[in-house]
Amino acid sequence: KGDFEQTGRMFERLGGEGGDADSLETAARIYEGMGDSKRAQQLWVSYLERYSGNPHRWGVALALARSQDALRQDSQAVAAYKNCMSGPADYLAECGARLGDLYMRNQNVSEAKNYYRKVAATRTTAAKAKKKAPAKASSASSNEATSSPYVGYARFKLAEMMEQETRFEPLAMPEEKLK
Questions:
Q1: Ranges 21-30, 120-129, 137-146, 156-165: which has the least confidence
Q2: What is the largest CA-CA distance in the chain?
Q3: DSSP reduced 3-state for 175
C-alpha cells in the first residue's frame, strides 16, 4: 500500500522548495489521481507561474485545461486552452479542438467554428502525413511535427456542422424516365 497523500506532499515540496519542475507536475498528477482536482489545479497553476520557460509547460497547460473542462469551470478552461494554443503546433491542434468542443457544449457555435477553422488550417492530418512519408524509416518526432489527429477531427466537426446547416431536397426521378 502506498501513502499517496504523503508522496504527493513530498513531490510538491521538491517542486516548490527544490526547484524541480517535474516533481511539481508529478505531485499534481498524484493529487489528480486521488480525486483532489482542486489541489492538482493549484499545483499546475503554480507550475505555470514558476516554470514559465520550461518546454513541458504546454503539456501542463493542457492538463490544467482538461481538468477545468471536466469540472465545467469553463472560463478558466478557456483561458488555459488559449494559453496551451500558444505553444508548438501539436498543442495548438489539440487545445484548439478541445476549445472548439467546449464552445459547442455551451452552444456557442460561431466561436466553436472559429477554433475548429484555426486547427483545420494548421497542417496536414496524421493519415496524409503517413502517405507522404519516405519509404525509409523516419523518426516518430518528425511525424508528430507534421501531423495531428486533431486537425482531421476539426475538419470533420466543420463538415458535420456544414451538413447540419444545409437543406437538402429529396431526390426523385420523373416517372416517364423510369418506364
A1: 137-146
A2: 86
A3: helix
